[in-house]
């Protein structure tokens, strides 16, 4: 898979390209990404972008007005400067990339609260034995991500899994760990604190 990022200074464009790259890697695809110019948004867990021309057959990622194959809608943000980067990332991911988004302090604080709850649950699960990944939940999240990158739907599945007491804690842990390889929300951050 080849990606080309048209606006490497636009965080949402870069986040969308990063999510496409991560889903591609999960599907065991080799992903090559170039950008209009080099950019480093590592603070938001986005892989560094290197400058380069679009590779043959590249999927172009850019804002809606750039005529790209993956058009990312406009977004605004205010009051997130002191937020944990993972909470800001989650607040952005809660919006479909094709829909306009406004990320305010309430959205970031809500995302931070959800991260704290998910991390707390994972820390509890990690004190018990590991179990195999829950196949149905793993498939449902990957299906959502492969459906035009429906991250909000995948996050809803994650939230449902966290609260599903019918699934063994060790299985929930392993399933969430696998999903976080795509979401990059640092969900295991509290493991080892119990």
Automatic annotation (TrEMBL):
Keywords: ATP-binding, Ligase, Nucleotide-binding
SUPFAM superfamilies per UniProt: Anticodon-binding domain of a subclass of class I aminoacyl-tRNA synthetases (SSF47323)
Keyword ATP-binding annotated: yes
Domain of life: Bacteria
Protein name per Swiss-Prot or TrEMBL: Uncharacterized protein
